[in-house]
Amino acid sequence: MSETVISVENLGKKYILGHQMQGEYETLRDKISNGVKSLSSKLASTLNGKRIANPGIEEFWALRDVSFEIKQGEVVGIIGRNGAGKSTLLKILSRITEPTTGEIAIQGRVASLLEVGTGFHPELTGRENIYLNGAILGMSRVEIKRKFDEIVAFSEVEKFLDTPVKRYSSGMYVRLAFAVAAHLEPEILIVDEVLAVGDIQFQKKCLGKMKDISDSQGRTVLFVSHNMDAIQRLCLECIMLERGRLVMHNDTVSTVQRYISNNLYRALPSNWIDISNAERVGTGEARFVAVQYSSLNESFSFQPYSNGPLEFLLTIESDSSRSIGSLAVVIFSRTGTILVNADILSLDKTINLKLGSNLVKLRIERLNLKAGIYVIGLWLDRTGESSENEALDYLESAFEIEVFNFESVGFGLETIGPVTCEFTVEKYEN
Questions:
Q1: Are 226 and 147 found together in one domain?
Q2: Does residue 142 sit within a domain?
Q3: With 116 labelled, which of 40, 200, 212, 324 sits at a CA distance of 20 to 30 A?
Q4: Taking the model in full, what pTM does it have?
């Protein structure tokens, strides 16, 4: 049986939030005067044995009653919405901040990659920071030197190794920081969402390294990410946090499915994306102004998933009544390849717009795409034969969507080119 290397029991972290009371702007003199008055009131209340509540102060629990154990060699994903407490948990495990309540027990040396530039001194060179980080981890100079060439090769920053890291780009920072954290032999590696800063190829390289650390070296990895595909590829177990509480600690597939289908991840009808000021070309006689999207399943909706439906509601403003022969939702890869072109032109159908606001629904019946980030383009034209500048409206990059996957229903198609998706379009009368 594997040894428990991380034990967390009834962990809680409380912050005190200060709120500016409504009223007139205070000068420095006012603040000093009010501070003295407040101090006097506090002293008086203390002497009288009374405690007066401050309406400008609020307690906020970032974590509350969190308990779990992690065994040696496990790769555990930590998921949850922004503000769920993921980063706070990692900071406590990394000994950056102290918990308010509860206990943690950690067996082994911990290397953390929580923010861009964590543990780096900006005035030192890349070479100097490698040795500095190794020393912080408790390694001797001989041990660091033995790993030095591997770190440099992995980070791909050899050309800038003797340049102060304050001149590095965020991507170079992450490359070097991850290389140091992964190669200086920590028993426990903690990685936050920071890897999203790097390019796609380097992200794949990092995921492969983390898997290797666990599989061949028996090290423990904690990985926070909003990329559910990366979580499922790397982690066998997953912890889900919600509003500072642990709501699930189970196998990755079931935890991710709950995360996606949970009320927390529903796309509510009010979640419109304003694209009225987005970059576009066209005559502007009719134009897209807002859009929402969801993946419908029975009576609720959530984020798009591979092999599931995807529905768009498009708000279109027109300066007159007109017939539209080409209305399309185009899905691009992040490299610009057209993967899906759902255009009513292929349906031999027209949409009649009235003067003012119009609502059009376009529903893709089965999204045959693998998990990942995609760019959505929107096209509007009378006939579909116009150029970009002659079309009514064309947004090549209106917004991005993230597609997830359910392993229970299979992955989307691995593709580098067009994908066939059946779709329907209808006009809402409003």
A1: yes
A2: yes
A3: 212
A4: 0.58
